[in-house]
Design goal:
The protein has 11 helices and 9 strands. The chain has 282 residues and is α/β, with parallel strands linked by helices. The protein folds into 2 domains: 2-175, Rossmann fold (3-Layer(aba) Sandwich), CATH 3.40.50.620; 188-281, Pantoate--beta-alanine Ligase, Chain: A,domain 2 (2-Layer Sandwich), CATH 3.30.1300.10. Strands 1-4-3-2-5-6 form a 6-stranded parallel sheet, sandwiched between helices. Helix 2 links the parallel strand 2 (24-29) and strand 3 (50-55). Helix 7 (126-141) crosses helix 8 (153-165) and helix 10 (203-216) packs antiparallel against helix 11 (222-235). The chain starts with a strand and ends with a strand. It binds pantoate. The site of pantoate (PAF) has 10 residues, from strand 2 and helix 7. Pantoate binds next to strand 2 and helix 7.
């Protein structure tokens, strides 16, 4: 599996493919790939003849440099997995390639709507880091299609909004969250769980799944449903950041008649920050 770090070399390869009439899908990642990423590669393959997976640990993604330094770099293993998943190319740029004038002086992209709430409120600047790096990856690769995971629900909405605002001719696809057999959403954060915490972690999804069933059965007291989940999380040793029922389309607070909802949750369990969500069509 070829990993290219240089933009010129990458563009030559992409130009060859385009010249042959092939479409290009991009799956942006920070590496340390798990089956959740592989499911996004599979979706990408269904939408384009060529699949590029970017592996870039973005410094502006992290609230502190310790988390950035501690993020696992596993490029050789990622290459093997991507070869099996039949990805065509890995784009693995270094920090200078993405931020030629330094991270602090970088031209940045901000999506004001959608980013000051939920994860954005708890991690100021985080989504600016995401949209800035994703816009660069989009400019470099110029994919026809880009695939993001539903687990980061707010992120994919923000990126979708960015693509509309900047008139980017890129189809944004959201791939379903891949789960372990017990329901835990696959995430690179799961590596931080102790054995006991790992046994508890699936409850995060189980609790929002109960909310989903309550909504489907006609419950509409959103505050009551949210606070019941908060109580259960606390009782099981989680440190919840939020539990929130929103409109799936734009994360607005729903009214009683809203019919496309998303239940979003974020909670620490030990050192792992776990997020998950459930879309509910009523
Ligand atoms: O979801 C992620 O892994 C990252 O936010 C992304 C989209 C690769 C941008 O750094």
């Amino acid at each position: 599996m070829k990993a290219i770090g240089d933009v010129k070399v990458l563009r030559e390869q992409l130009a060859d493919w385009r010249h042959s009439g092939e479409h290009i899908a991009l799956v942006p990642t920070m590496g340390n790939l798990h089956d959740g990423h592989m499911s996004l590669v599979k979706i990408a393959r269904e939408h384009a003849e060529r699949v590029v997976v970017s592996v870039f640990v973005n410094p502006t993604h992290f609230a502190n440099s310790g988390d950035f330094d501690g993020y696992p770099r596993t490029l050789e293993r990622d290459k093997r997995r991507l070869k099996q998943a039949k990805s065509d190319l890995i784009f693995a740029p270094d920090t200078d390639t993405i931020y030629p004038f330094g991270v602090d002086n970088a031209t940045s992209v901000t999506v004001p709507a959608l980013t000051n709430d939920l994860c954005g409120a708890l991690r100021p600047g985080h989504f600016d880091g995401v949209t800035t790096v994703v816009s660069r990856l989009f400019s470099i690769v110029q994919p026809d299609v880009a695939v993001f995971g539903q687990k980061d629900y707010q992120q994919q909405l923000v990126i979708r909004r960015m693509a509309i605002d900047l008139s980017l001719p890129i189809q944004i696809i959201c791939g379903e969250t891949k789960r372990e057999e017990d329901g835990l959403a696959m995430s690179s954060q799961n590596r931080l769980l102790t054995d006991d915490e790992r046994a508890t972690a699936p409850k995060l999804y189980a609790f929002i799944d109960e909310v989903g069933r309550g909504l489907a059965a006609g419950q509409r007291n959103y505050l009551e449903l949210e606070s019941a989940v908060l109580d259960k999380l606390l009782a099981h040793g989680f440190k919840p950041e939020y539990v929130s029922i929103r409109r799936a389309e734009n994360l607005d607070v729903p009214d009683r008649d809203s019919d496309e909802l998303v239940v979003l949750v974020s909670a620490y369990l030990g050192n792992a920050r776990l997020i998950d969500n459930l879309i509910v069509h009523i």
